Amino acid sequence: MFLITKMSIFTWILLAYVGMHVGSEYIDYVKGFDLNTIVLIHHISPERDFILRVREIFLIAGSFALFFEISKAATAKGFGAGETLQSFLVAIIFVVMFFMVPWAQNSTFLILGMMSLIDATGGFIIELNAARRDINIA
Fold first, then answer.
1. Among residues 45, 15, 44, which one has the least CA distance to residue 30?
2. Do 60 and 72 meet the contact criterion of CB atoms below 8 Å apart?
3. What is the tally of helices (H) and strands (E) in the chain?
4. Cα(104)–Cα(88) distance, rounded to whole angstroms?
5. Number of alpha carbons in the 13 Å side-chain half-sphere of residue 27
6. How far apart are CA 84 and CA 17, in angstroms?
């Protein structure tokens, strides 16, 4: 249960992203799988198609993760500095990988990194407000 409730969802998104790129060399199931791989095609009309690629799946997952992480920070009684520290570490890893790793230098990874940074700063702000209410600073 610790891996679900105490770890940031962005950690799992980062691991899935890295696993997709690094794992394509070692795992047969992931070979030929990249950000442009089409997951779903829905024919809306003869002229229009709805196409969902892996990169959009990552952005959708990041949006849901941001929502759940902020709501978890705002409502959890036991939310503490450990989760905030881990969120900041994940955000730093996103930034470092964006600048250092060639396959991470794309808009999808940048947006996921910014979502992770928003999660970390949002959790920090929520934690500070909760601490201020507990101490009653005038």
1. 15
2. no
3. 5, 2
4. 19
5. 10
6. 22
User: What is the total count of domains within the chain?
Assistant: 1
Helical pair 9-26 and 54-75, crossing angle rounded to 10 deg: 150
Query: SS3 for 39?
Result: strand
Which tokens go with 6?
């105490």
Residue 134 included in any domain: no
Helix, strand and coil in the chain, % to nearest 5: 70, 10, 20
CA torsion angle 129 132 136 138 (round to 10): -90
| pTM for the model | 0.83
Encoded tokens for 7? 């770890």
Strand, coil or helix: what is 43?
strand
Q: Which domain holds residue 11?
A: 2-129
Judge whether 138 lies within some domain.
Answer: no
Beta bridge partners of 125: none
Write the pLDDT tens digit of every residue in 70-122: 888 777 666 567 788 888 999 999 999 999 999 999 999 999 999 999 999 98
